[in-house]
Amino acid sequence: MTFWNNPINFIADWLTGLLTGWHLPAALATILVYLIGIIVLVLFAMVLDIGLVWVERKVVARFQDRLGPNRIGPFGLIQPVADIIKMVIKEDITPDGADKVIYNIAPVLAATSVILLWAILPLASTIYGVDLNVGLLYIVAAGALGTLAIIMAGWSSNNKYALLGAFRMVANMISYEVPMVIILLVPTILANTMSIRGITEAQSGMWFGILSPLAFIIFLISAIAELGRAPFDLSEAESEIVAGFHIEYTGMKFGWFYAGELLHAFTFGGFMAILFFGGYGGFFGLEKLPGFTWLNFPLVQMLVFMAKAMFGYWVIMWIKYSMPRIRIDHMLAFNWKFLVPLALVVLVNTAVLNKVLAGLPNWGYVLGMFGSNILIGFVTIEILRAFGRRQRKLEENPTLQAQTQEQVS
Amino acid sequence: MSIPLSWYLILAATLFCIGLYGVLSRKNAIAILLGVELMLNAVNVNLVAFWRYLNPAEMAGQAFAVIVFAVAAAEVAVGLALIISVYRRQKTVVADEIDLMKW
Amino acid sequence: MSAEQILFILVGVVILGSALMVVTTRKLIHAALWLVVTLFGVAVLFTLLRANFLAVIQVVVYIGAIAILFIFAVMLTRREQMEKGRQTRPNWWIPALLGALILTGLVVLILNLPGAERTALALPEGLDPVRALGSALVSPKAYVLPFEVASVLMLAALVGAVYVATVDKK
Q1: Which helix (H) or strand (E) holds A309?
Q2: Rounded Cα gap, residues B94 and C82, in angstroms
Q3: Residues C71-120: pLDDT tens digits?
Q4: Crossing angle of helices A26-63/A298-320, nearest 10°?
Q5: How confident is the model over A387-400, as pLDDT tens digits?
Q6: Contact with chain C for residue A134, Cβ under 8 A
Q7: B14-39, pLDDT tens digit by residue?
Q8: Distance from C-alpha of A402 to C-alpha of A380, rounded to nearest angstrom
Q9: Considering C22, C53, C84, which residue would you say is the last residue of a domain?
């Protein structure tokens, strides 16, 4: 076990040896090393978050055909530091009649629920926090804590707009958890395990995004709704309810919400990369060939993972800055009447075909899964087109509408 | 040294009694439901502790705990729906004031 | 005192402390949030007992759904004058006495239980609790029938809750 093969365990062993050399009891040394590991992981996530502020502002600027921050530092790289300084020196206001304890805990809980996700995110085959055997459900659990933070923020602000924004956001998030959980079962079936590392290892032959592209699309939509980003950003609709549940938050507390949202988006980009695009591996068997064994090094895998996660984050930003906002009742109808049945169909299809096609050679399996997804997508689009045609005919023809009303009532 | 089974059982018993106190002594109907949730959690802790300490290969304890999860969720949903419906008519959720059906 | 015992005592103090706050605090919103702390403590306890799946399900179902439902219900049925004045009934000492008596009885019973001092053996080799739980819940020789009945129960609860809570549109 050298540093290049297994950096985390190497450093942990060296530190434990050092601490017991200083005559610390072994249990205390282990706990101290674990604490240091946690602090390093959290620091890494937070520093990445600062970089993400720069990425977000540059990308939104380019989508909107302008330059973005380019004055402070080369290419505006020091801009996030200026943002942080601005937020820290702002006045810290607690509104009158607000519930002080809940008001102050809410932003911390919102950011914590995102950092909790980094405990199971594997950056390389030997760089990860913990390998839970129920890793996928842990993602949903951390999302649930985020929902709680939003309700706490909306309620404790003592402000009707905040409460409205919080209600809408929470209704959004708990509705879109249902298709997300159903779709999270698809990689579980394909990889035969719920642990995140197991799913990544199972994709070394073929990406799950190719085996089941519909699952990827549904996960993308549910993830964007969970994040509360456009087009599902009813809670932050600046033109409607003035920033929703974080109206009353100033300075660094708002900074926590904002940074938490960006890190959450990047983390979900990372999860999309892991669940559907091979994560830190997924080289289609290339790493087993001689001459390509350097693909197995943890640092190379980390770079590959970061690149894929950045790509996922970029797709999320692309969708945010290209699409208009969706109304709340349309959002919920879209979820319950379209996404959930589609997710269930995809799940049943994956489960059945996984067993039926198990005997075929690899290319037959891949073709069968991919083809079935294309077929489901085609049938769905045809159903939607027929539905749209009927709606249009009803609206153009008022007498037909009256007849239909009579039939219905 | 590891944790003896009795510690888990005593923790579950204490949680159960605190929930019982909450159910019997609070006026607000929602607060009563909160006490019921504490009792259900105590039962779950008990079940899982027995699963772990007696025979981990036999899944009865965990399966039972999953069923208790489902029942608790269903009960809270219906209970809160009823309370909200009562609040709409009577404008109160204090348990003592919901007494239209008393003789 | 091993690390596990210290951890258990910490978690136990958190659980019991927040449970006491749930049943004694004046504002109902605070009671609901203290319930969230209790539920999280119970999830940590499940992890100590190596029931990882149940721990995560506890957070998802209880904190992510039930606690949020409680908070919504408290917000929708709130009236300012309900939160002044006493929150417990006049003869609150009867339930307290009853609770203390039942607790004493249970503790005596537990301490006299044969085998209550046993410590946990290691999990058997090759046992994957998640996989075993999954097979147990759908295997006809195991618990598929309670599982299916529970799902019918949840369907009934879903329909019932929607019907009861719907406002009549005249």
Answers
A1: helix A298-320
A2: 8
A3: 999 888 877 666 666 777 778 889 999 999 999 999 999 888 887 777 77
A4: 40
A5: 999 988 888 877 66
A6: yes
A7: 999 999 999 999 888 999 999 999 99
A8: 28
A9: C84
Subunit contact C71:A155, Cβ cutoff 8 A = yes
From the list C61, C70, C120, the residue facing B53 with the nearest CB is C120
Q: What are phi and psi of B93, to 5 degrees?
A: -120, 10
pLDDT at B36: 95
**CATH of span B5-97:** 1.10.287.3510
Q: What is the pTM of this model?
A: 0.90
Which residues make Cβ contacts (< 8 Å) with residue C99, sequence separation at least 6? B17, B18, B20, B21, B24
What domain count does chain C have? 2
- Cα–chain center distance at A69: 26
The alpha carbon of residue C130 and the mean position of all alpha carbons in its chain are separated, in whole angstroms, by 21
The gap from C-alpha A253 to its chain's centroid, in whole angstroms, comes to 22
| Domain containing residue C58: CATH number | 1.20.120.1200
Phi then psi dihedrals of residue B94, to 5 deg: -75, 125
Q: Are residues C77 and C137 in the same domain?
A: no
Q: Write out pLDDT tens, residues A222-234.
A: 999 988 887 887 7
User: Is residue C122 in some structural domain?
Assistant: no
Structure tokens at A269: 């980009």
Cα angle, residue A53 at apex, residues A47 and A57 outer, rounded to 5°: 155
The mean predicted confidence, pLDDT, of chain A is: 86
- Pairwise pLDDT comparison (A359 vs C111), residue with the higher score: C111
Whether B66 contacts C145, CB under 8 Å: no
As a whole number of angstroms, the distance between CA A309 and CA A349 comes to: 28
C158 touches chain B (CB under 8 A): yes
Written as six digits, the tokens of C14 are 């958190």
Q: Which two tokens stand for residue A390?
A: 């009927």
Give domain limits for chain B.
5-97
Q: Which amino acid is at A319?
A: I
Q: For C108, which residue in chain B has the nearest alpha carbon? A: B10
What is the span of the domain harbouring residue C55? 1-84
Amino acid letter, residue A119: A
Residues C75 and C135 in one domain: no
User: Is residue A404 predicted with pLDDT exceeding 70?
Assistant: no
d(CA A37, CA B62) in angstroms, rounded, equals 32
Residues of C with CB under 8 A from a CB of A: 2-3, 29-30, 33, 36, 52-53, 56-57, 59-60, 63-65, 67-68, 71-72, 75, 128, 130
- Residue C168 within a domain: yes
Q: What is the mean pLDDT of residues C115-141?
A: 81
User: What is the ipTM, given to two decimal places?
Assistant: 0.91
Cross-chain residue pair C156–B8, CB shorter than 8 Å? no
Residue C4 pLDDT level (bands cut at 50, 70, 90): confident
Which token pair is A162? Answer: 């905040």
